[in-house]
Structure formats: C-alpha cells, structure tokens
Automatic annotation (TrEMBL), chain A:
Domain of life assignment: Eukaryota
TM regions (residue ranges): 55-76, 186-209, 229-251
Main location: endoplasmic reticulum
Major enzyme class: lyase
Topological type in the membrane: Multi-pass membrane protein
Record's protein name: Very-long-chain (3R)-3-hydroxyacyl-CoA dehydratase
Organism the protein comes from: Zingiber officinale
A molecular function GO annotation: very-long-chain (3R)-3-hydroxyacyl-CoA dehydratase activity
Reactions listed under catalytic activity: a very-long-chain (3R)-3-hydroxyacyl-CoA = a very-long-chain (2E)-enoyl-CoA + H2O
Pfam family, one: PTPLA
TrEMBL record, chain B:
Keyword list, A-Z: Lipid biosynthesis, Lipid metabolism, Membrane, Oxidoreductase, Transmembrane, Transmembrane helix
Organism the protein comes from: Zingiber officinale
This protein's name: 3-oxo-5-alpha-steroid 4-dehydrogenase C-terminal domain-containing protein
Sequence ranges assigned to domain 3-oxo-5-alpha-steroid 4-dehydrogenase C-terminal in this UniProt record: 159-310
Family membership noted in the UniProt record: Belongs to the steroid 5-alpha reductase family.
PROSITE patterns assigned: S5A_REDUCTASE
Entry's localization field: Membrane
Cross-referenced InterPro entries: 3-oxo-5_a-steroid_4-DH_C, SRD5A/TECR
GO biological process: very long-chain fatty acid biosynthetic process
Transmembrane segments: 95-114, 126-143, 164-183, 198-217, 229-250, 262-280
Membrane topology: Multi-pass membrane protein
Length: 290, 310
C-alpha cells in the first residue's frame, strides 16, 4: 500500500502502515490453539483497532465532506435563483449539521485518534460555532446580509478540500498531488474572505444583539452572576484577529504536529497568512522532489 | 581553550569563537559573550551542549558555576556550545510586583469610586459588611504576596522572559477586574452572616498557613541562591508536596464561600488547574531526583496538591 507521504502531513499515518507491515510478518507465526477459542494476540488486536480507526475516520471525513458539498451546492443554486438574501435559508440545515459535527474533531484530538492539539482546534471550532449558532441562528436579521454568501462559500470550499483530502488519506492511504496543491493554494483567497465575512457578520449583528437582550443574565441573583451577550460579542470581535496570533503561537509550541494543526485552521490573521505561504512553498517544492 | 558559539541554525554567533583560560567557568564564558555582544547579558543566554545527531533526550545545559573543562569530553582545548537568546529578561520580583499590583489597585477602585455609574447604575449604592470585609481580605492577600516577593521568596531562576509580564498581568488584572466588578456591584446579593464568617475565617487561617509554608520553603534554599532542591518537610509538607499551593487554593475557597460570585469560583477553578499543573511537575521532579539510589534519600509517599483527590 502506497503511504509515501506527499507532504509529510500525515506523519503518524506512515507510522501506522509500518506497523501494519510488521503485523503481516507476524501473522503467519501465530498458530491457532488446539481448541476452537482463539484469543486475539496483542498485535492482532492492535491491527483490528487500527483498521477500525481507519474505517471510522474515512466514514467521518467523507460524511462531513458530503455535508459541506451540499452547503456549496445549495448556496450557489440559491445565489443564481434568488440572490444573496436567500442563501442562508437554502444552506441552513447542512451548514448546521456539518459545522456542529466538527465538535467530534475535538474529541478525536482528546482521545488521541488524530494528532492535532486540542488547544489549537478548540478556538477554531469555537469561533465557527459562534458564527453558525451564536450569530446566524440567534440573530435572524443577519441572515439576509450579503456576507452570508461569502461566508458559506469560503467555508464550504475550504472544508470540501480539507475533508476530501483526509478522506482520501484514510480510505486510500494517499491523496493526489493536485488536492495537496488545492489545500495549500486556496487558502490564499479563502482565509481573507472567510475572516472578513466572520468579522463583518458579528459587527452587523451587534445592534440587534443589544436590542434583543438575548442570552443576558442580569443581577441581582443568588450567585452574583452577570452575562451580557453584547459585550461578550464585542470581546469576541476584539480577540478575533490577535486570537489567531495566539493560536499560531500554540501551534508553534506543538511543533511536531504542526502540519496537522492546519487541518483545522480555516480563518486567519495576516501573520498566519504569511506563515501558510511559507508552508505552501515548502510543501509544494517537497512534492515536486518526492 | 577556544569556545565556538553556534546558534541552532548552525550560524556562528561570535565569529572566530572566544578564547578563555583553561580553568574558566561557564560564568566567565557568559561574561565574555556579554562583553562581545552587549545586549546578551548572562541571564538572557541559554547555553547547551550540542545534541549528537539522531539522539533523543534533553540537551545538557551549562551551569554557571561549573568549569568549562567539565563539559569537554574529548578535546580539552575546544568546545562547541549551542547558544539560544532567551529574549529580554526581567527579575522575578519585578514580574510578581507588577502582576500583583493590578488587583491591589483595581479592586479598591471598584469599591470606593462610582465606577458603576458608567455601566448605567445611577444613584447611591448600599454597601454590605461582607463587601467591606472582602475588600480588606483581598487587599491583605495581594499586599502579603508583594511582601513575600521582596522579603521571603527565594527563586530558582533569577529572571523570567519579558513576555511573561504581559501574559501574567493580563491574567491577574483581568480576573481581578472580573471579580471586583461583581463583588462591589450595586446589585450585589450578600450571603448569610454565618456563611460569611465561616468563609473569611477559614480563608484567613489558610492565608496564614500559606505564609508559614513560604517561610519553610525559603529555609530550604540557601541564601547563595543556587536554587537546589531539597525534600520539603514540616507542617503540611509532611503530607503534601505543594502545601503552599494547597493553602492558596483553600484560601480562595474561603473568599468565595464568603462572597459567593460565579466570577470568584471561575477564578478559583482556573487558578487551581494552573497550580495543579505546577504541583504535578514539581512532585515528579522531586520523585525523580530523590530516587533512593546512590545514597540519595527516597522521596516519601505524599499527596501532590489536594488531598484526598490528588
């Protein structure tokens, strides 16, 4: 099975296949005991779990891929038929499903199924969920804004490329070089458009958040607790751009799984943009010499 | 002997290396580097032996008091040292002073000045006794911390990177503001009298215990400040490795029992997590250092930070 990593991103994947080769070598050594109960040996158990992991991750990645494909399809269809104000209603269900499913990726990181640092994926997925549920779903006045179109198109194209990339890696053991090229090139446009749309929509939502008093907890109460959704959204806005710097810093600390981390980055700051440009150069030149 | 100084990318930091006497110490090397490149004062230098290609494990850090010759394994006349710039350094006292100053100033501002007017709460506000006692408790706590920083603590490292000042100040000042805002709020709801008394009394006992723990820790380290490790003992240290963190956590618990704010409890949880991380590292370090071999004492079985949980 070809597991020559085109870009070294799935380094741990290569390790797993080496294990599989070793497994194959051991398989013919184990002879079944005289009675019919066969107790699985540690190495065959590990091989079984390995296969299970791969099947699960293939299913996961391709399922979510289909979700995002639907988002893109319905978005483009709605744009052509009804215009930007109709996009949200057309994509709402697949968008909510596909984006919320990404919470599983945090779980994957925690249990060690994939090698991404939770500290990097958490703020990324957090910001996505904030947009999908906290802004678009909670504040209906934002749904007809033109930025919704740019948002869902930026997100869906990025995610389609990303999930198909990992779907292929898990299912087939490799990903074609054109897909790798797409991964490292489309961000050049999609990062700026995505982040602009996110920041813009939060900004557009602010007056409506303030007026609706939604999700606010006021004092007095027994636990002396307050929460003001308006101020929380402003703080979210304020840490958005430097927040991306922070995520980048966390990624730098977890250097050994650096390439894995960009799996989950779909919005960025100027600094990150520059960093990805560097990564792109490295990855694409590496694939040329491989 | 000649010392070749290289950065991790392989570039020579000082062209041509540095010539030193054969009996020179690492400290002499640090002074020489500082002499050649003004901005690299010794506390900013991290000097390690280059790792052999392909070998794992932690690099060997050059200790200031040791002789350079101790690090040469073959060639006694040549030594290659890896240099890393740790960035601008500040003394730990400076760092602690600034991070504690914020809460010490912000909290009384919320108590004494009409800041809530700017949040839309006009008019006179009623101040409950618990809010006044909370002010005294809080200010005593941070004043104590500042005093301990200057007169009690003996630090294992002389300095800390400048970036930590911003990070730590953000942490303390933000949480300080968050808690001060809620406890001194015009619409604050106090707890019952008994609960308040239990909270503050328990908290005070823990603060005093915490002070005693710091005194014990101070006496473990010699004034010459070489930051060596000893097995802590006496008072609560007989049963828990990081008794100082234990008392600190419980003291915040006392404050929260008395003042009852979500803000205070969030701070308690975050602070406990941070301290537990430190405590686990320290406990592990002590157990590894005092393994009972080669005449070293064996680290006794103890709780790490919060009996009976961990």
């Amino acid at each position: 099975m070809a597991v020559e990593d085109v870009d070294g991103i799935y380094a741990h994947f290569g390790g797993s296949s080496a294990h599989l080769i070793k497994l194959h070598q051991c398989a013919h050594l184990a002879s079944p005991p005289p009675f019919s109960i066969r107790i699985p040996s540690p190495s065959s158990m590990a091989g079984f779990l390995y296969a299970l992991r791969r099947i699960y991750l293939s299913l996961y990645n391709w399922t979510v891929f289909i979700g995002w494909f639907q988002v893109l399809y319905f978005a483009v269809k709605a744009l052509r038929e009804g215009g930007p104000t109709t996009v949200y209603d057309a994509v709402e269900k697949p968008l909510q499903l596909a984006q919320t499913a990404a919470v599983l990726e945090i779980l994957h990181g925690i249990v060690g199924l994939v090698r991404s640092p939770v500290s990097a994926t958490l703020p990324q997925i957090g910001s996505r969920l904030f947009l999908v549920w906290g802004i678009l779903w909670s504040i209906p006045e934002t749904r007809t804004h033109v930025l919704v179109s740019s948002l869902v198109i930026s997100w869906s194209i990025t995610e389609i490329i990303r999930y198909s990339f990992f779907g292929m890696k898990e299912a087939l053991g490799f990903a074609p070089s054109w897909l790798l090229w797409l991964r490292y090139s489309t961000f050049l446009l999609l990062y700026p458009t995505g982040i602009t749309s996110e920041v813009g929509l939060i900004y557009v939502a602010l007056p409506f958040i303030k007026a609706s008093e939604k999700y606010c907890i006021r004092m007095p109460n027994k636990w002396n607790f307050t929460f003001d959704y308006f101020y929380a959204s402003i703080i979210a806005l304020a840490i958005y751009v430097p927040g991306m710097f922070l995520v980048l810093l966390i990624i730098q600390v977890n250097k050994d799984c650096l390439p894995n981390c960009f799996n989950h980055i779909s919005s960025g700051s100027p600094h990150m943009y520059g960093y990805m440009l560097g990564q792109r150069k490295k990855a694409l030149s590496k694939s040329k010499t491989a | 002997m000649k010392v070749t100084l290289v950065s991790r990318s392989g570039r020579e930091v000082i062209k041509g290396g540095i010539e030193l006497a054969d009996g020179a110490t690492v400290s002499d090397l640090q002074e020489a580097i500082h002499g050649r490149i003004k901005k690299y004062y010794p506390s900013r230098q991290r000097l390690t032996l280059p790792l052999q290609a392909g070998s794992q494990g932690k690099p060997i850090v050059l200790v200031p008091k040791s002789k350079l010759a101790d690090y040469c394994d073959g060639n006694a006349n040549n030594l290659t040292v890896l240099f890393k710039d740790l960035g601008i350094q500040v003394s730990y006292s400076t760092l602690f002073f600034w991070e504690y100053l914020g809460p010490l100033i912000i909290y009384p501002i919320c108590y004494y000045f009409p800041v809530y007017k700017y949040f839309g709460y006009e008019g006179e506000r009623v101040v409950y006794p618990v809010q006044t006692y909370a002010l005294y408790y809080w200010c005593f706590h941070y004043f104590k911390r500042i005093m301990e920083t200057f007169f009690i603590h003996r630090f294992s490292h002389a300095t800390s990177p400048l970036s930590n000042v911003f990070r730590n100040c953000a942490y303390y000042w933000t949480f300080g503001t968050y808690i001060a805002y809620h406890v001194n709020h015009p619409l604050y709801t106090p707890v019952g009298d008994l609960q308040m008394k239990i909270g503050f009394t328990f908290g005070l006992i823990c603060q005093i215990s915490n002070l005693y723990c710091h005194l014990i820790l101070r006496n473990l380290r010699s004034p010459s400040g070489n930051g060596g490790y000893q097995i802590p003992g006496g008072f609560l240290f007989n049963i828990v490795t990081c008794a100082n963190y234990t008392t600190e956590i419980y003291q915040w618990l006392g404050f929260n029992i008395a003042t009852q704010t979500i803000a205070g409890y969030v701070f308690l949880i975050v602070a406990s997590l941070i301290m537990t991380n430190w405590a686990l590292a320290k406990h592990r370090r002590l157990k590894k250092l005092f393994d009972g071999k080669e005449g070293r004492p064996r680290y006794p079985r103890r709780w790490v930070i919060l009996p009976p949980f961990i």
